[in-house]
UniProtKB/TrEMBL annotation:
GO terms for molecular function: metal ion binding. Residues 1-17 form the signal peptide. GO terms for biological process: cytochrome complex assembly. It comes from Pseudosulfitobacter pseudonitzschiae. The gene is ccmH. This is Cytochrome c-type biogenesis protein. Residues 6-148 form the CcmH/CycL/Ccl2/NrfF N-terminal domain. The lineage of its organism: Bacteria, Pseudomonadati, Pseudomonadota, Alphaproteobacteria, Rhodobacterales.
Length: 150
């Protein structure tokens, strides 16, 4: 029974992140605020949205989003304001434009380079001649016999 209660509490944890005092009276504005806050990264928790995070900074960001919406900003203007203030790192899904394009393309480019290097290596190995066995010289045979007799 304790496990069931614990599991239910863990599943409900993201719901508890937005406190009742933060919720806007207008359901349409609240839905927009929740949509925006689900796309913004908590700068303390790193891989959680501010909608799910319990950190004080995430709460401040949620309140800032709601203030901007109440002031009449569109969703894009609100996100742009927060990105201008905190940088593009605050976005959970960064855009693949500008300098970010290089980051998005780096993985596939590195994979292609690794496959190319592996192909060159395998091809070079297949073209290499087999190493030939060489018999020991008389001096080497004599030295080996000395070592084995010791």
């Amino acid at each position: 029974m304790k496990r069931l209660v614990m599991i239910l509490m863990l599943l409900a944890a993201p719901v508890w992140a937005v406190e009742p005092g933060e919720v806007l009276d207008n359901p349409a504005l609240e839905a927009r605020a929740r949509e925006i806050s689900q796309g913004l990264r908590c700068l303390v928790c790193r891989n959680e949205s501010i909608d799910e995070s319990h950190a004080p900074l995430a709460r401040d960001l949620r309140l800032l989003v709601r203030e901007r919406l109440v002031a009449g900003d569109t969703n894009a203007e609100t996100v742009d304001f927060i990105v201008a203030r905190y940088g593009e790192y605050v976005l959970l899904r960064p855009q693949a434009t500008g300098a970010n394009w290089l980051l998005w393309a780096a993985g596939p480019i590195m994979l292609l380079l690794a496959l190319l290097a592996a192909g060159v290596y395998v091809r070079g190995r297949s073209r290499a001649s087999e190493p030939q066995d060489q018999a020991l010289s008389a001096e080497e045979s004599r030295r080996l016999a000395e070592i084995l007799d010791e």
